[in-house]
Amino acid sequence: MFKILVADDEHNIRHILDFSLHAEGFAAISVQSGEDAFTTALNEMPDLILMDVMMPGQGGVETCRKLKQDERTAHIPVVLLTARAGREDREEGLASGADRYITKPFSPQKVIETIQDILGVATDGA
Amino acid sequence: MVYTATLISGARPLLASLSFTLPQALLLMAAAGVGVWCWTVWRRRQLAGATDLVHQKEVSRQLRHRNRVLERILAVSTRLNTTRNMGELRLRIVEAARDIGGFRHCVMYLWSAETKAFEARAFAGYDELAKNRLAEDLVGMARYREICSARYRYSNCFLVTPELEWNDPEDNDEHRARVWQEGQILAAPLINSSGEELGFLSLEGPGDGQVPDVVDIRQLEFLVSQAATAMESAEVYERLARNNADLQVASEKLNSLNDMKNNFVANVSHELRTPLTSISAYSELLQQNPGSMSDAVRDEFLNVIHTESQKLTGVINDILELSSMENGRPQGNQSEVDLVQLAQRLADSWKSRAQERNIELELVADLDSIQVYADGILLQQLLGHLLGNAFKFTETGGRVTLTVQETGTAVKLVVEDTGIGIPEDQLVDVFDRFYQVDGSATRKHNGQGVGLAICQDIVKHHDGRIWAENVKPHGARFTVLLPCRTQVLQPVDPTVVSGSPFQPGEFMQRIMHWIGGSVAVQTATLMVPDADQEHLVIRAAIGLPETVVQSARVRRGHGIVGRVWESGETLLVDDITADDCIGRDQNEPRYTTRSLLSVPLLRDGVCHGVLSVNNRLDGKPLDDDDRLLLESMAPMLTEMLLRYRGWQEDSRHFAEIRETLRAITTVGHYRQENIIETCQEICLAAGRSILLPEEDLERLAFALQFYDVGLGFVPHRLLNKPGPLDPEERHIVSGHVRKCLEVLEPLHPDSKVRQLILHHHENVDGSGYPVGLAGEAIPLGSRLLRLTDTLAALLCPRPWRAAYTFDEALNEIREGVGSQFCPRMTQVFLEEAGLRRGRIEEQQRQGMDHRLFKRPVLDPLQM
Asked: Which of B79, B638, B671, B710 is most buried, by CB atoms within 10 Å?
C-alpha cells in the first residue's frame, strides 16, 4: 500500500484529502506545517508528498526545496497544492523541484488521479 | 610731449656757437627773443608735461585698479555659479557686492509672495542687532517703487537720499559727486533674465566716504546682473531638486502601493480559494458517493460546506467594505451609543470561540455605561475586527483583553493580546489597506489584511485616533481614542456650505445652517437692526416660514429678542409662547420645544444683531451648554456680520470665509481656550518687555488669534502623530502655514502680520519651515509665536497624553533653546510665563474637572 504524506494547515483540506486517499486505498499521514512535513518525511519515507504552499512558518515551496536537496528524500515525488494561482507562483513552485502543481479549489478526484499517475498505479486502485 | 621737449633743448648748443654781427646781433637778438619765447614755451610745456605725467600715472593706476576689480568680479561671478545652495549664494553675493562697491554694509532684500513685501534675507557687515532690525523692516511694494523712482536714478542703480536737497536739477550731478550723506543708501535692483524683479541689494557706508563714481557703479551693476542670473539658476536648480524629491516620494509611494495591491490581490485570491476549495471538494465527494456515505459523515460534510460558505461571505463583505471606504461613509447614522454595553455584547459573542481555542477573554470597564455620539454599527465592526485580529494572532492558552475607559477628553478602547506582536518597523504600516504582517507566500494567519485598514477608516470617520504598539513580554496592543463629543459638535457638512456660485443674501443663510447644525436645532434666526435703528428684522433664518421671515419686525426693548438687543445680554427662556413679538400660530406643529435662546452680537458695546435658536432636534429644552456654545460663536458671527456688509457683492470672499469657518471648527477639538488665552497674554507681555512698538504688538495680537487656522487643513492623523514626521508628512504639515495666510486673506493682514505668521515655525538653527530662516533673520514676533504655540500645546491635554505640568512644559521649552527657540526671547517669555504660573495651574485643574474640551470654544471665565 502506498503511503502518502499530506501537509496542510487547513483542517478541512487535510480531512478531505485523508478521506479521498483512504477511499482509494492509500495510507495517509497528515501534518500541519512544513517543518513537520520534513521530519515526518524523514521518519516515514512516504511514497509521495501532497503539500500546501501557504503554511505557517516554513511554507510548502521552501519545504519542497529542502526535501529535494536532501539525498534521503530527494526521490520522493512532491505535489504542491496552492490557493495562489499566479504564473509566478506556479513557476516558483516548480522551480523548487515539485513534480506537480495543483491550484485550489481542486477536485479530490483529480488529485487522486495525479497521484496515481505519478506512482504509476492503475486507476482502479491499488 | 617728451619728444617735443627734447627737440627744443637739442637746439640750444647750435645757437651758442654762432659769431656776432649787427644784423647778426639783431638776428641774434631776434633769435634770443625766439629763444626766450621758445624757452618759455618749453618751460611751460615742461611744467604741463609733469602735470600730464602725474595725471597719466593716476589714470593708469585707476585702470589697473579697475582691471583688478573686473578680474575680481569675473572671479566672483564664476564662483557664484559654483554654488547651488541658495542661502550660501545670497551670502556670497552680498559680500561680493559690498567688497566690490567698496561699502561697509550690504543687505539683500527679496520679494516674498507670502508677506507681499521685500524681506531682508542676507547680510554682510552687520552685527546681530542690526540684522534683527533689518529682518523686521519689511519693504512694501510702494516703498520699493519709491526707491526705484526716477529722481533717485543713478546709472541703473538708485541713490536714495532721505531729505531731498537737489530740487534744482542743475545741482544734481554736482551734488551727487559730493560726500556720502548719513542715511543715504544705494539700491541695486536684482532683475532676472526674464525681467522679473527678484529684489534688490541695499548698500551703505562707502569706505572712502564718497559717493561712488559712475564707473564704480557700472562695475557693481555688472556684478549684480551676474548675481541675479546665478540666483535664477540656483532657484531653478532648487526647484528641480525639490520636484525631483517629490517625484521620488511619489514614485516610491506608487511602487509600494503597487506591491501592496499585488499582494492584496494574491491574498484575496487565497482567501477566496481556501473556503472555496473545501466547498467544492466536499460537495464533489457528496455527489460521487451518494450511497456509501454514512449519515454522520454526510452531515459533517454539509456542515463544513455551510461554515466555509459563511467564511466566504465574510471575505466578500470585507472587500465590499473596502469599496465603501473608498467612497466615504454617510454621516447620518450617528446616535448615542453605550460603549460598555457594546463591548459586553461583543465579548459575549466571542466567548465560545475563545473557549474553543483555550484563550482567555477579559472585558475591563471602569464605568457601567459610557455614552458616545457615534455610529454604533461601525463601532461594533471596529471592535469586531480588533478582537478578530487579536484572536488570530494569539496562540492557544493566551489572553485577549478588551478595555473601555473614559479619559476626560476621549473614550479609550484598548484591545490587547499575548500573541506574536508586530515587527517594530511595521507598527504604522499595519493600518495600510493591503498590508499583512507576514504577507508573502508564507503566512501563519488568515485574513486578507484589510481589517485594520477598515478599523482606521472607522476611527477616522469619528475624528478619533488608532495606533498599535507591542507589549512586553509579547503581544500587541491596539488603542482607539474617540473624542467624547456630543452631537453638538458636528463637522460642517460640506454639501451645505459649498459649491454653488455665491448669491448675495445666501451667505448668511448658510451661516444659519451651519449654526443650526452645530447647536443641533431646527430653528435659528438672525435679526439685525433696521435702517431706522428702532426695529429688528430677520436677516437670515432657518426653520421659519418665508412669510414670518418677510414680515417679522421687533421693536427695541420689546419681546425677548428686543430686550436682548437693548440690554446686550443673553436670554434663555423656558417658554417661547410667552413671547408675542413674532407673529406665529402657537399651535403650529413645528415647535418641538418651547425654550428659546437669544444671544446678542456685540462689538465695542454696540449690539449689531441678535441670534436666536429654538426647537432642539432631540426635543429637549435648550440648556446652559447651548448658551455657552452660542455665546462662544457670537464674536465670530459678529465679525462675519460686520464683514458681510462690506462683502455682499464680492463673491470671491465667500469661499474664503467658508474655508475659515471650516478651519476654525476643525481646529477647536482639543484646545483649552483659557489656557491658550493665558499663553497669548504671556506672548504679548513678552513683546512689551522687549519694547516692541505698539503697532507691532497689535500685529502680534492679531497673529496670535489666527496663526493656527491653517491647521484645519492638516489631516488629524498627522496633527496627532506622536513620533517624528517623514518628509512627505512634514511637507503636508508645513503647508498649513501658507494655507493659513490664504485663509486669512479676506481679513487683509498687512505684510508684517503675514511675515509673523509665515515664520512662526522657523527654528533658530534653521531647521524649521517653511523657509528655513535661522537666528536673527526670524522676526522677533515669530519667535515669540513659536514659543507661545509650543507652550499652549504642552499645557493642554491631548487625547493620547495628559497635559504637561507647568514645570514640565517649561523644561521642555528650555530643552529646545538654541535649536528651536531663540535664547533671548525664551528668557523673556519664560519670565513672563513664571508670573502666571498660579493662574495656569488653576486653569489646568479646572480643565480636568470640567471637561472643557467637548466644545470648540468654551471659556470658564465667562461661565
From this structure: B710
Comparing alpha-carbon positions, the chain A residue that sits nearest to B441 is A54
Closest CA to B833 of B858, B860, B807: B807
Higher-scoring residue by pLDDT: B330, A27: A27
How many whole angstroms separate alpha carbon B497 and alpha carbon B508? Answer: 11
- Give the mutation candidate from B272, B286, B442, B446 for the A interface (greatest A CB count, under 10 A): B442
Which of B742, B660, B651, B674 has its CA nearest to residue B114?
B742
Contact B277 A57 (CB under 8 A): no
Residue B563 CB contacts under 8 Å (≥ 6 apart), including other chains = B557, B571
CB-CB neighbors (< 8 A) of A85 in chain B:
269, 273
CB pairs under 8 A between A and B: 75
pLDDT (0 to 100) of residue B811: 92
- Per-residue pLDDT, averaged over A98-113, amounts to 89
Interchain pair A105, B273: CB under 8 A: yes
List Cα–Cα distances, B414 to B365, B471, B541, B708, B786, in angstroms: 10, 12, 44, 31, 35
Q: Are the C-beta atoms of residues A24 and A2 closer than 8 Å to each other?
A: no
Give the residue from B595, B410, B604, B609 showing the smallest Cα distance to B519. Answer: B595
Asked if B284 and A59 come within 8 Å (Cβ–Cβ), the reply is: no
Nearest CA-CA partner of B742 in B109, B110, B116: B116
Q: What's the gap in Å between the CA of A60 and the closest CA on chain B?
A: 8
Test B281 with A83 for CB contact under 8 angstroms.
no
CB contact under 8 A, A109 and B288: yes
Entry pTM: 0.44
Q: What pLDDT sits at residue B710? A: 67
Calculate how close chain B gets to A7, using CA atoms only, in Å.
14
Task: Tell me the sheet residues that pair with B602.
Answer: B607
Contact B595, B575 (CB under 8 A): yes
CA dist B90 and B228 (Å) reads: 10
Beta-bridged to residue B197, according to DSSP, are B191
- Looking at residue A76, what is its pLDDT? 94
Q: How far is A18 from chain B (nearest CA, A)?
A: 12
Pairing status of strand B117-124 against strand B139-140: antiparallel
d(CA B350, CA B110): 66
ipTM above 0.90, yes or no: no
Q: What is the DSSP letter of B607?
A: E
Determine, for residues B304 and A109 on separate chains, whether the beta-carbon distance falls below 8 Å: no
Type of residue numbered B477:
R
Burial of B586 (0-12, 13-18, 19+ CB in 10 A): exposed
- Residue B729 three-state SS: helix
Q: Which grid cell is B407?
A: 479619559
Residue B628 grid coordinates:
455657552
Subunit contact A105:B289, Cβ cutoff 8 A: no
Residues in chain B closer than 8 A to A23 (CB atoms):
289
- The ranges of chain B with pLDDT < 70 are 1-50, 163-178, 260, 263, 322-332, 407-409, 432-450, 484-507, 576-593, 643-671, 710-725, 727, 746-747, 798-800, 847-863
**How many residues are listed for chain A in this entry?**
126
Contact B381, B458 (CB under 8 A): yes
Q: Which residue of B has its CA nearest to A84?
A: B270
Using left for φ > 0, alpha for ψ between -120 and 50, and beta otherwise, residue B27 falls in alpha
Look at the block and give the residue holding cell 530740487.
B167
CA distance B580 to A106: 81
Q: Which of B273, B276, B282 sits opposite A16 (nearest CB)?
A: B282
Q: CB distance A109–B279 less than 8 Å?
A: no
Taking chain B, what is the end-to-end CA distance rounded to the nearest angstrom?
101
Q: What is the pLDDT of residues B695-716, one digit of tens each?
A: 888 889 888 877 777 666 666 6
Residue B305 C-alpha, separation from nearest chain A C-alpha, in angstroms: 10
